Here is the input.
Amino acid sequence: MSCELCNRTGGDLLWQGAFCRVVYVEEPGYPGFCRVIWQAHVKEMTDLSEAERIHLMEIVFAVESVLREQLDPAKINLASLGNAVPHLHWHVVPRHADDPHFPQPIWSTPKRPVTSDRSHPALPALAGAIAAALDE
Amino acid sequence: MSCELCNRTGGDLLWQGAFCRVVYVEEPGYPGFCRVIWQAHVKEMTDLSEAERIHLMEIVFAVESVLREQLDPAKINLASLGNAVPHLHWHVVPRHADDPHFPQPIWSTPKRPVTSDRSHPALPALAGAIAAALDE
Here is the structure.
């Protein structure tokens, strides 16, 4: 199988369980950008069972909650696209008014250059907070 | 309040309940594009209770399921962005290999012109299918 999310972690591993993993995406201008990836090669949310969908979304929302606490973004963006890589994964993206594309989606033409004013969070602390949120 | 999703329906109403509504978006090149909108003015998924989040996502996934059945898309795209309009709403977008942006996100620079080969679904039938999926 030539799927890049079957063959590779897809980022820095922050947390994983039997069904999902959470990885950190080192995207310039987007500190806190995480992805939540279903471990098995499944294309659509409605290819999962209802219980699996609820489980995956609980992890997405736990990551959102931790990113809001740690980074106080103007908005959180959530997206499951997967046109190029049809293996279920959710983008969880903290947005700030001075980020390269705000208020447009991160996939649009940039409005301003990347600034280095915001640094990436410390990954061990982020990983710990996600684990704590999921153990609650 | 100047929020356009508080003041307007936001599209052709397909279904509504106490907490959410589903509207049809007449987007050229994107037959089947729906939005699921939380009725109250709430910004983030993690501002909802867990039960409310599950309810909203059940409706998103019911719409996805109906659109897959009716339109057989190459992929479904789901997104909750709301940077410009911070009132919870989900985009549910059937994607096809010949649509204007495929495989890129619909917010990127178009790759090809809109073709009229695919027509918009009949809205009464779509509304009926969504209602049936939600009554199951």
